[in-house]
Amino acid sequence: MLLSGGRISVHFRNCNIALFALAFFLMVMAMLGAFYNIIRQVSAAYAERYASSSADAFSAHIAKEIALMSKAARSGAVIDWLTDERDDEKKILAYGELSGIVGELYSNNLYIGFEASRHEYRVNKNFTSDDIQPFATLSEHNPDDVWYFHCIASDKDYTLSIGIDHVLQRKRVWLDYKIVKDGATIGVLCTGLEFAHVAEELFSSYNNVVRGFIIDSNGIINMDSSLLDNDSFMRYDFEAQIEDVLTDPGFIEAVKSHLDNTEDYFKGKREPAVIKLSPGPYRYVTIASIRHTNWSAVVLYDSSSSFNVTLFLPAFITMLVLLIAFALANNAISYRFIFLPLEHLVSSLARLQDNKDEPIYGLKRNDEFGNLSNTIQDLFTKANRDALTGIYNRRFMENSLRDVMEFLSRSGGLLSVLMLDVDYFKKYNDTYGHEQGDVCLKAVAQALADSVIRASDFVARYGGEEFVAVLPNTDEAGARGIAQKLLENVRKLNLPHANNTVAPYVTVSVGVTTGTVTYTQNWEDYVKCADKALYMSKQNGRNQYTYSVFE
């Protein structure tokens, strides 16, 4: 019976319309509120965000290098080598530890200074252990060796400094890390990050919306994003004070206050400071501490950019949130009225594969799903049930037997198959007529179906007066028991059969076979074996079963 109207589609459409109208109203109201505050807030917020992200990115670089250097400095193999420099075996072990760490360092280079001998070594990711030889002797009178003696004299585990790499003529952030044994410093590890590369990562993605600086605790500029394309930036053979670039009195006062206590930088306690500048190309500037260092990121934000794309960003975000909420609500309604019933229907059909009596979901629903479920039920019945007897047909038996054998073949399970035939059924039809013959077949089929009770077992009409029973995971004894039960249940029907030479009522003959399933077998082999056993039952007088081992 077709349903009048589509209840699901009507519910779905009405709810969608109502939710859309509500979302649209809320969206308009939110936009009005957002535009009221946007000009006042966005510039300061973006200035702070850019500075914080730049400082976090820089500190992430530093933190990674510190972690790697700490790992190297605490390596037992490295400490052993620095304790006994001349031991080649210890050097090889130390190189094995260091080579993996060097490959993760930003520069892929590591310098090692020995306190005992003052020898300086260099480790590159492409070196072999034979390449690890002292290439210089550290001297307090050599300006290039200041890094080593400065770190030795420091009361911290590591020191950070900015200096020129005289080999590459590039400015670097140098990280020097002490190697300590039993409270005494036995050496120093050194690596460097090239400023140019770090600067490009920090500022090149901002498309001139901001101008960024990295300054030290004295306010000296060590990085200026406006010079990204300038060779002097790459070389950094100049120095400038931040006050020389930004002369705004409020900014200068804020910088001095911010730089008063650089110890808090290491603890990550200093909050970004946002300063509103005098009218000019940059209206807001933010100072943010870079953790693990005593440096700061200073970011100037071009407020004019707030009056184009970013002007609408809060409104767009609000609209997006509302649209997402609308989508989620729409999804919930869709799931409640469409997808949840569909899941139940699909699940019931899946369970139907294992349990032939599983009811199909939705048969009693008074909507489209009820109509669909009843249609599927009708199609399933017509496709898998015998029209006369109501039990499974040969098509279902063949398909199911294939699936059962495929499953059992994985574990070498047992399978029993029974073939049944109504004794002298042709004579029964000749005596009582085909209409009464149909009644007889229905009664026999029901008796056979009542004889198997496990969900995995089933009986099917094979054709004419022949039936097949399939018993997965059933051994010989179980199969014999079911065969005897089939014989008895048919006898109990006590259907008169005057021309049955073995009994005055309807009887059946049964052939039984049991085998261990393998992937090389097919279902026809089991049916043929059961059919041969059935033939022996007929030869031996009918109204009995014959068992044959499957080969």
Overview of this protein structure:
By secondary structure, the chain is of the alpha+beta class. It has three domains: 66-195, PAS domain (Beta-Lactamase), CATH 3.30.450; 197-307, 2-Layer Sandwich (Beta-Lactamase), CATH 3.30.450; 385-549, 2-Layer Sandwich (Alpha-Beta Plaits). It contains 16 helices and 17 strands. A six-stranded antiparallel beta sheet has the order 3-2-1-6-5-4, sandwiched between helices. α16 links the parallel β16 and β17 (545-549). It is elongated and about 125 Å long. Residues 1-6 and 233-237 have low confidence and may be disordered.
CATH topology of the largest domain: Alpha-Beta Plaits
What is the second-level CATH architecture of the largest domain?
Answer: 2-Layer Sandwich
Tell me the fraction of residues in β-strands, as a range.
15-25%
For the record, what CATH class of the largest domain applies? Alpha Beta
Strand order of the largest sheet: 3-2-1-6-5-4
Give the structural class.
alpha+beta
Q: How many strand segments?
A: 17
Q: Stretches where pLDDT falls below 50 for ≥5 residues?
A: 1-6, 233-237
Distance between the termini: 52 Å
Number of domains: 3
* Average of pLDDT: 80
Q: What is the number of helical segments per DSSP (H or I, 4+ residues)?
A: 16
- The general outline is elongated
Helical proportion, percent range? 40-55%
Question: What composes the largest sheet?
Answer: 6 strands, antiparallel
